[in-house]
Amino acid sequence: MEKLSVKDIISKIAAEEIFEAVSSDYSFTIKIDDYVPYACAAIHNGHQFRKELWSNCLHTAYNRWYEEDPETKTMVATHPIVITGCDSRFEYDLNRAPEEAVFETAWGKQLWKEPLSETMKAKSLQKHTNFYKVTHALIETLERKFGFCTVYDMHSYNWKRWDREVPTWNLGTTNLDNKRFGNVIEDWRQSLSKIRLPNDIKSTSKINDTFYGNGYFLKYITKNFKNTLVLATEIAKVYCDEYEQVIYPEVVNAVEEELKTRIPKHALIVYAAFKR
In the chain, how many domains are there? Predict the structure, then answer.
């Protein structure tokens, strides 16, 4: 992996080069092993939190970890195209529009002892901007090359905070053209429901049961690219103890192994249905 500027990353994508890089500000990574009509994203995987913000933050490192999506990069790491956020969503949230990306409160609790200065906000928002410049370049290239592409937008959620039974997998589709994509969305839901997990963990899957696909990442791509399907795919945090902050590596590995075959298989089905 090499450290590259946003300009250099975009140039490599435009030239369809094979590369793996971390952005020069260390805010995201991107890997392209091959140009294929699908990509994976794990935008909430990151836990980095700028040190100059520590003393002003009211949330603990555990509070932040609890709301992040640890190991979602690991789950899709073997796929040819993977873009991943490195920073905590508590610094800036890549799944929110720029004007909402730097929190004042987070999950009902004030985040900062003192309001952030405009300078501090601008540092964070520049990284948000850089990520979306690269995202735009990536999807633009894939659409141009293939005519259609699919993005698997991987997230996780805290299932123990719900007071009802919730699915292992949730697909958020309210901002998609469900008339156009309904069949392939259902194909993906069915595939997820067949995943086998260790420790007697069942694999259920539903659409718009816990989350609805209202994230900015999905909205941004859907608004700007008419031939890209973004599948906001949430796994319940059955792969860790969300209260004790313990990761279960055997479960993470099982998810990775299942997605290793299920994602490309589904992506080919989508591509066959919608390529021009």
Answer: 1
